[in-house]
Amino acid sequence: STGSPAQEEPPTGLCSPSPKKEPHRKPQTHMDVQGFKWVRWRVWLCRIGALLSLGLLLMLFHWNPRLGVLVRCVSCPPAIAEILLLRDSFGHHYVVEVLTEELEGSEADSSDWRDTVQLHKEQVPMLRYYLFEGMRYIWMARKGAFCRVSVLNEEWTCADLYGYREGLSRREQDSRYVTSVRPAHCSPFSVLGSLQVLNPFYVFQVFSIVLWLADKYYYYAACIFFISLISISVSLYEIRKQSTMLRSMAQLITNVTVRRSSGEEDSVSSVELVPGDCVLIPQEGLLLPCDAVLLAGECMVNESILTGESIPVMKTPLPAAAGRYSAEAQQRHTLFGGTLCIQARGGAIAVVTSTGFYTAKGELISSILYPQPINFRFYQDAMKFLLFLGGVALCGTIYSIVILSRTNIMWWELLIRGLDIVTIVVPPALPAAITTGTIYAQRRLKEQGVYCISPPRINICGKVSMFCFDKTGTLTEEGLDVWGVVEGSGAGFSEIVPDPRFLPQGPMLSALACCHSVALLGGQPLGDPLELKMIESTGWELEEPSGDDKTLDLEFGGHRVLAVMRPPFVVYGASINQAVALVQRFPFSPSLQRMSVVTVAPGGKSSLAFIKGAPEMLASLCQKESVPAQFSNTLHTFVSQGFRVLALGYKPLHGQTDLSSIKREEVERDVQFLGLLVMKNLVKKESAEVIDTLRLAHLRSVMVTGDNILTAVNVAQACGMVGTDERVIFVHATPQTDQSLPSLRFHLGEEGAGAIQGSEDIHSQGLYQGGSKYHLAINGMSFSALCDYFPEYLPKVLMRGTVYARMAPEQKTQLVKELQKLNYRVGMCGDGANDCGALRAADVGVSLSEAEASVASPFTSKSDNISCVPLLIREGRCSLVTSFSLFKYMALYSLIQFTSVLILYTEKTNLGDLQFLFFDMVLVTLLAIVMGKGGPSTELHPQRPPASLLSLPVLASLTLHTLLLILGQVSALVITVSQDWFVPLNSTMSGANNLPNLEDTSVFALSGYQYIIMAVVVTKGYPYKKPLHCLIFIQRGVWYWLVLAPMPFIRKLLKLYVIPDMNFKMLLVALAALNFITCFLLEVLIDHGILNCLYLLRRRKQSKKQYKRLDVLLSESPSWPPLDEPLAPIQCTVIGLS
């Protein structure tokens, strides 16, 4: 729910409404907000309780903040609350304090601010707010809710922004700074340290250390204490380092020049900037410290840190039109914080719209600092399994108390021994162990040029079931070669001209030379590779005005010149062309699928507008009589051969038109068609290899592009997404109009020609009987209509859809989310700003960028091809299997030690201090390090590794292994007791006080073998990981030596009994070997599905994954999809037209 204006005070308020959805920003999570006030007597009662419980009550409140608030406070409306209880969409609770700040009365001029600050009719206006995750939320009585402070400028219109062009006064700037975001400071080490120590893991460590000290395990307790201290220190250092780095990235501090309302210019620190400040951009550019909208001049900006796109983007002034400003809709006019303005010209002026964590980059970094919980079954099951181990510990504690109570030990000693079982069964190193595989994988990925900013997603890579790919620059080469130009008019198309320099003098040649956003940097042209090739093919030269030089302006009739295109002196014997000046530029927009420029000839004569864009879009803007009748067929011919095709048009402008203020809508209507630019885009050689690898591994590959659908299909066939023997069926959906109902149709030809005959051929070849696999192809317009009017058919289309063409950036993001609804683990690989939203929405987003780490996606690859995708999946599978193995091993290690202690408790003895230390620090730690070190397999197997720890194979494996381990230790004790030379221990003493003895030595020897045995058994190799058994067998050899012929020094140090009988020692080794063989065979049988017979005893269940159920359904539906049969929405009725 969201806060809304209300006459009466609502009982609960909510945080800010969802902000405008911008291409680089994380979605705003809706937070339930409840208000509370302190109750003094409850607070004092809790303080007394905390004192009596030695701080345990406060610790409980820290772990469960909701409980702490309910116990000490009483509910009240948020408008008068002192404490707020926040609850996010994941059910997590947070407690924040409501802060107040005095404002001078004259500062509350606007109605919004007055609503915000003048509460309770106080004499001094107060600003009430709270801070959460680096964001400030202020109380707005008009909305009846706490809102993000950025809501004050979210309703700005374009006209409002132009109103700030003259700058703010110092007084306005100071008053806005009060409500603006303040510099985010890093938490001091004392705060970070207390948070670390209060972590349940470290609290359990402290509890364990105190218990071990009480039980006289001094060496072990001291060792664990120092290791925990080192672990906390390293963790604090890394947290502080990352926090400092990210915050410095979000809040760039530099000096900028701002314009004041008095007309003077002032140099201020970027920390003092507030929304509404007017910033002057220097010609040499700067690293932008805030989000700002450009009102004058042009800026060439490198946005690779946000988008991963290394090609600079040209930013142009915001149109002075009515309507609300949106950074998403006007991103070509918005300068985003953290990006680098390479150069500015024309007196660039920008108005600040957001600062700090409210900028595009700031919010992305906030999402890294405060990540949303990852919904991954492995992590959820790990917590549940710890609870299960806690139950086992409880049973062990009860057993130990019952056994030890029969002896004459003191009650406090009985309590310590009972609680000691808990510290054994719940291994304190378990959380660290399961991240070992991820740490190794992250290091290996970095060596391969793949950088990760979200390590938990590495494990998710191992469960990816489909990958989406952008086309241009990802599957195909970034650069394009001009294949030819085809001029066209109402009379038809002319012959193709391979070299544009052979074109006659006229608007077509001028359009090719002028319709671009290329700029000069250091004398070198910089811009989109396609446009660079286009200009190069004409032979024209780009010239730009330098500084405040007005020479070019005077040459072209006094117009403000952005750039000049000059033709070569002689064009193959033809007459010399005139130079052309660009005086207005409307950059390319993915949503509009076009760009345009306004030009003039020398002296300001002959004003022409040139338009370049997607052929279908440009044809819809042209005068019908100027478009050739063969347009569709000609376009179909080129794109079906894989060519990239752009259309060009022009429009003569009236001599009295004000070119400096002309609107885009006026320029881009009633255009005259000029022709087509045909470019060849080659598929990268790595693309087909990777797609084939994914296909063999049973991973779906999907193409999501903004290009023409036939071009996309051709590339899909070239790279192997669509096989040579597989059919492509096109999906055509139309929305509802005043004259017609929405419709959905499947056909073989893009334009439907020959579809009926093709349908008959398909039926005769047995498409629906499995004789031929088919793929669906759909464009962006049809995808939108499908989502809006045919939601019941959408899952079926997604199941067979392989090519998604003419997709806008927001549609790419929507596609990823719809696929995730079918329970796919979706990967996305792209290289530009258009893919940014989809990269963030995907489970695994990979940005192909030269930047070392981009916040555009969790993974950034320095390679310019998709060869990193199989590497990521292999590393993810390796990491997941390693985490799985280490989790099972740490659980079994605890159960082995648990068994040893209970057996020795029964015999009135226990393991010694250094024996515990040797097992935990020397043996198990080294084994865990070795287990985590193995690299990934060199091939992708069709079977994905399991991710559930609570599945039947895992639980059965742990249970059966535990029984075999118990049997092994009991057998070792029985064999020892049955020897003729056996000497019973001193029963007058208990615990480790009666060491050395034969019972302890035999159990110590066999349990040591079992730690190594389990490491070998649970370490999975093929097909996900390289085997590491050689290192473990070396460690086993060392253990053989320790048991059969130990050095006197080590034997004395570990308090082991001297056993002279070599036959007995060999018998222990044989028992360990038998234990290994049985456990190893059991694990192999479970891996090969021996437990599958148990599934036959119950009714066969459907898969929990929706896409698997749909796949079965479609394979059993011989009539899907119905070719050339128009389908209507199920809910649609004729009444709906009214």
UniProtKB/TrEMBL annotation:
<dbReference type="InterPro" id="IPR008250">
    <property type="entry name" value="ATPase_P-typ_transduc_dom_A_sf"/>
</dbReference>
<feature type="transmembrane region" description="Helical">
    <location>
        <begin position="911"/>
        <end position="931"/>
    </location>
</feature>
<keyword id="KW-0472">Membrane</keyword>
<keyword id="KW-0479">Metal-binding</keyword>
<keyword id="KW-1278">Translocase</keyword>
<dbReference type="GO" id="GO:0016887">
    <property type="term" value="F:ATP hydrolysis activity"/>
</dbReference>
<dbReference type="InterPro" id="IPR036412">
    <property type="entry name" value="HAD-like_sf"/>
</dbReference>
<dbReference type="GO" id="GO:0019829">
    <property type="term" value="F:ATPase-coupled monoatomic cation transmembrane transporter activity"/>
</dbReference>
<keyword id="KW-0067">ATP-binding</keyword>
<feature type="transmembrane region" description="Helical">
    <location>
        <begin position="1030"/>
        <end position="1050"/>
    </location>
</feature>
<comment type="similarity">
    <text>Belongs to the cation transport ATPase (P-type) (TC 3.A.3) family. Type V subfamily.</text>
</comment>
<dbReference type="InterPro" id="IPR023298">
    <property type="entry name" value="ATPase_P-typ_TM_dom_sf"/>
</dbReference>
<feature type="transmembrane region" description="Helical">
    <location>
        <begin position="886"/>
        <end position="905"/>
    </location>
</feature>
<feature type="transmembrane region" description="Helical">
    <location>
        <begin position="952"/>
        <end position="975"/>
    </location>
</feature>
<keyword id="KW-0460">Magnesium</keyword>
<dbReference type="InterPro" id="IPR023214">
    <property type="entry name" value="HAD_sf"/>
</dbReference>
<dbReference type="InterPro" id="IPR001757">
    <property type="entry name" value="P_typ_ATPase"/>
</dbReference>
<dbReference type="GO" id="GO:0005524">
    <property type="term" value="F:ATP binding"/>
</dbReference>
<dbReference type="InterPro" id="IPR047821">
    <property type="entry name" value="P5B-type_ATPase"/>
</dbReference>
<dbReference type="InterPro" id="IPR047819">
    <property type="entry name" value="P5A-ATPase_N"/>
</dbReference>
<dbReference type="GO" id="GO:0015203">
    <property type="term" value="F:polyamine transmembrane transporter activity"/>
</dbReference>
<dbReference type="InterPro" id="IPR059000">
    <property type="entry name" value="ATPase_P-type_domA"/>
</dbReference>
<dbReference type="Pfam" id="PF13246">
    <property type="entry name" value="Cation_ATPase"/>
</dbReference>
<dbReference type="Pfam" id="PF12409">
    <property type="entry name" value="P5-ATPase"/>
</dbReference>
<feature type="transmembrane region" description="Helical">
    <location>
        <begin position="1070"/>
        <end position="1097"/>
    </location>
</feature>
<keyword id="KW-1133">Transmembrane helix</keyword>
<dbReference type="InterPro" id="IPR006544">
    <property type="entry name" value="P-type_TPase_V"/>
</dbReference>
<feature type="transmembrane region" description="Helical">
    <location>
        <begin position="421"/>
        <end position="441"/>
    </location>
</feature>
<feature type="transmembrane region" description="Helical">
    <location>
        <begin position="217"/>
        <end position="239"/>
    </location>
</feature>
<feature type="transmembrane region" description="Helical">
    <location>
        <begin position="385"/>
        <end position="409"/>
    </location>
</feature>
<dbReference type="Pfam" id="PF00122">
    <property type="entry name" value="E1-E2_ATPase"/>
</dbReference>
<keyword id="KW-0547">Nucleotide-binding</keyword>
<dbReference type="GO" id="GO:0031902">
    <property type="term" value="C:late endosome membrane"/>
</dbReference>
<keyword id="KW-0812">Transmembrane</keyword>
<dbReference type="InterPro" id="IPR044492">
    <property type="entry name" value="P_typ_ATPase_HD_dom"/>
</dbReference>
<feature type="region of interest" description="Disordered">
    <location>
        <begin position="1"/>
        <end position="28"/>
    </location>
</feature>
<feature type="transmembrane region" description="Helical">
    <location>
        <begin position="41"/>
        <end position="61"/>
    </location>
</feature>
<dbReference type="GO" id="GO:0016243">
    <property type="term" value="P:regulation of autophagosome size"/>
</dbReference>
<feature type="transmembrane region" description="Helical">
    <location>
        <begin position="189"/>
        <end position="211"/>
    </location>
</feature>
<dbReference type="InterPro" id="IPR018303">
    <property type="entry name" value="ATPase_P-typ_P_site"/>
</dbReference>
<feature type="transmembrane region" description="Helical">
    <location>
        <begin position="1001"/>
        <end position="1018"/>
    </location>
</feature>
<dbReference type="GO" id="GO:0046872">
    <property type="term" value="F:metal ion binding"/>
</dbReference>
